[in-house]
Amino acid sequence: MASFDTIVQIIYDVIDETNENLPENGRLTKSPDTILFDRSGLLDSLGVVHFIVAVEDRVRDELGVSITLADERAMSAKSSPFRTVTSLAAYLTELIPKDV
């Protein structure tokens, strides 16, 4: 089973990749409370799309599981799973099969 810490590390790795393309004053921090997407977030809508695809790719490469993050369930959720590192990690924990 992929641990919550493993999933957070995957997200942090994607943050590192994303930061390579962001200006120094607009980089994401590696923190559970880092806001990924909302009015105060550093990523615009296109940036979030790239981030989501990178997380999906990293999960596939590291855990051998294909997932789709931006599905109807995520888009209709009362609280966006893409808001913070913690909310995204929690959502990934739900999506990734327990036997991984």
Strand content: under 5%
Net shape: globular
CATH class: Mainly Alpha
pLDDT averaged over residues: 90
* Class per helix and strand makeup: mainly alpha
Please report the total strand number as a whole number: 0
Largest sheet: none
Q: What series of H and E elements makes up the topology?
A: HHHH
How far the N terminus sits from the C terminus, by CA atoms, comes to 4 Å
Specify the number of helices: 4
Number of domains: 1
Question: What is the CATH third-level topology name?
Answer: Non-ribosomal Peptide Synthetase Peptidyl Carrier Protein, Chain A
Q: Architecture, CATH level 2?
A: Orthogonal Bundle
Poorly predicted spans: none
Using only CA atoms, what is the Rg?
A: 13 Å
Provide a compact summary of the structure.
With 100 residues, this protein is an all-alpha fold. It is built from four helices and no strands.
Question: How would you describe this structure to a colleague?
Answer:
With 100 residues, this protein is mostly helical. The protein has one domain (4-21, 30-95): Orthogonal Bundle (Non-ribosomal Peptide Synthetase Peptidyl Carrier Protein, Chain A). The chain is built from four helices and no strands. The chain has helices at residues 4-19, 45-63, 72-75, 85-95. It is globular, with a radius of gyration of 13 Å. The mean pLDDT is 90.
Write the layout of secondary structure elements.
Blueprint (H helix, E strand, L loop, with lengths): L3 H16 L25 H19 L8 H4 L9 H11 L5
Helix pairs in contact: 1-2, 1-4
Features:
100 residues, Non-ribosomal Peptide Synthetase Peptidyl Carrier Protein, Chain A
